[in-house]
Design goal:
Blueprint lengths: L48 E2 L2 H7 L7 E4 L9 H11 L5 E5 L9 H6 L3 E6 L5 H7 L7 E3 L2 H9 L7 E6 L1 E2 L5 E2 L14 H6 L2 E6 L19 E4 L20 H17 L7 E4 L3 H17 L3 E8 L1 H8 L3 E9 L2 H9 L3 E3 L2 H5 L13 E4 L3 E3 L4 E2 L15 H7 L2 E5 L3 E2 L2 E2 L1 E2 L14 E4 L2 E4 L4 H9 L7 H12 L11 E6 L5 E6 L4
């Protein structure tokens, strides 16, 4: 069957319970109630602090077939996922599902756990590195589920992703289970992606290398939701949080794109007092923020808030009085961690608050402008941020589809050619974010406006911006580099790409190893 953007979705997929094809960004309404975890009690004399993960596994007990969840705030510095899965393997457990909000190269040991039958399912929002490569070539018997950040929060709240045990890497904890991410030797900042896990999992285990005096302050995740606390030697390396891309680009082409994107934002008329903004951590996105900053300073504009994964650059804008608040679901560098711990206007929020479509209003709905990237875009403005030009999984939506749906204006910034391949194609290999939620594409060769936004096109032309039809940009790219060859894939579905509302927007098929 075909979904609303014309993608072929099988009526049944082995290992996936219910197939609901994507029907439109705002077409699906919830008909359900929120789920609830088990009700428990604890006596005044009971202790939560235990000596080892093995002891925790036996106390709960963790059994075959359970779903274990983890957060990714340590990114490529995480030490807890591998530690917990090694314990599971040591105890002979099988058929576990790993619900890890994002997978990084450091999580490569998952591959052996899959081969040994310890892990048979993976549910995540983003993948890169060896695990992503192995998934693409058919590592799992059943497809991996790729969600959005807001979609994961929704799935946990609504019972679609039922978590038996949440293992929370906690930079700081007290003996009774209060947790935060801003203290201890491995401070990582916001713990926002773990908030839904802590709220809805049947059991919650804090894994920490720093025990503070009770009561811990501040408290990000409270003692009322934490069953056990395990002290280990090291939960992770905060240096691994920094992705390496959280710096403003110095590339002349990237700077040209960023400057044009800032002029696009200016032409919308949205840079005014109360302006709400989100940008990614990539070099071109941060450069766009730098140009926007100059405009705000020139016109003495004070924005209401900046949102999303927070970088030191956004911290500096807060401390310079350009924004009144930061709303932080994930810290991207050490300055973001420092700010969250010291500035009361730097707010820690959960993934559901940030972007879940099934609540009384998430933060992305209040955005004026969001700046996003793309691996490729098609002439219907659908965007791929999941697979590369070789068909291998190299990312995921994260908050991409969420922010695009919520913002008044969604701008994609991208080089017209990526690795000598045109970014604009007739049909993206993997649809991640639907074109109806993408308003503008900014490249070094011109600006394309979604036909649904004729109002923006008029403003951009009036501002003298280099507006071009998307087909014109596509032809220009192909004249330079030629038309890209189609990627050959097999029949096996290795991943399903879920839209934020739980419907399936696309599938990823196996590539040759």
């Amino acid at each position: 069957m075909k979904n609303a953007i014309g993608r072929e979705i099988p009526e049944t997929i082995s290992g996936i319970a219910a197939i609901k094809p994507f029907a439109g960004a705002f077409a699906t309404s919830p008909k359900m109630t929120r789920q609830a975890p088990k009700v428990k009690t604890i006596k005044p004399t009971d202790r939560k602090l235990v000596d080892s993960l093995v002891e925790v596994f036996k106390k709960i007990p963790v059994t075959d077939g359970m779903t274990l969840s983890f957060h990714h705030h340590f990114r490529n510095g995480d030490g807890v996922v591998n530690m917990v899965l090694a314990t599971a393997a040591q105890l002979g457990l099988k058929n576990l599902t790993v619900a890890l909000s994002s997978v990084f190269p450091i999580h490569a040991p998952i591959i052996e756990h899959v081969k040994n039958g310890v892990v048979t399912g993976l549910d995540t929002n983003y993948m890169s590195g060896p695990v992503a490569q192995a998934v693409s070539t058919g590592l799992f018997d059943k497809p991996v589920v790729l969600r959005t950040h807001g979609g994961r929060g929704r799935a946990i709240e609504c019972g679609q992703l039922k978590i038996d045990v949440a293992f929370i890497a906690a930079p700081a904890a007290d003996e009774y289970g209060n947790l935060n991410g801003v203290e201890g030797p491995a401070a990582c900042g916001s713990l926002g992606y773990a908030f839904p896990d802590a709220q809805y999992a049947d059991y919650v285990v804090a894994v920490t290398d720093y025990i503070g005096e009770y009561p811990l302050s501040p408290i990000s995740i409270p003692q009322t939701r934490v069953d056990y606390v395990v002290k280990v030697e090291c939960v992770g390396d905060p240096k691994g949080i920094v992705s390496g891309t959280t710096r403003i680009t110095k590339d002349p082409v990237g700077l040209k794109i960023a400057e044009t994107a800032a002029k696009v934002i200016q032409a919308t008329g949205l840079i005014k007092n109360g302006f709400a903004f989100q940008t990614g951590a990539g070099g071109a996105s941060l450069a766009t923020a730098a140009f926007v900053r100059k405009m705000m300073e020139k016109d003495k504009v004070v924005g209401s808030f900046a949102l999303g994964g927070i970088t030191g650059y956004m911290v500096d804008m807060l401390e310079s009085g350009l924004f009144k608040r930061l709303m932080d679901v994930q810290g991207f560098d050490l300055e973001a961690i420092r700010s969250l711990s010291t500035n009361p206007n730097h707010l820690e929020i959960g993934a559901d608050f940030y972007a879940s479509p099934f609540n009384a209003g998430c933060a992305v709905n209040q955005l004026d402008v969001v700046i996003l990237g793309a691996t490729e875009m098609d002439t219907d403005f659908n965007v791929n941020v999941v697979t590369g030009s070789d068909g291998v999984i190299m990312g995921g939506s994260g908050g991409h589809a969420d922010a695009a749906a919520g913002a008044k204006v969604t701008i994609i910034v991208a080089n017209l050619l990526r690795g000598r391949l045109p970014i604009i194609v007739d049909k993206v290999l993997t649809a991640t974010t639907p074109g109806e939620t993408i308003d503008v594409l900014v490249t070094e060769r011109g600006v394309a406006v979604n036909p649904l936004r004729a109002d923006l096109k008029e403003k951009f032309l009036a501002a003298g911006l280099p507006v071009k039809d998307i087909q014109e940009l596509k032809q220009l790219a192909e004249k330079i580099a030629g038309a890209p060859k189609a990627v050959k894939t097999g029949e096996k579905i290795v991943a399903v790409v879920e839209y934020r509302d739980g419907t399936i927007i696309d599938v990823v098929r196996q590539v040759e190893g």
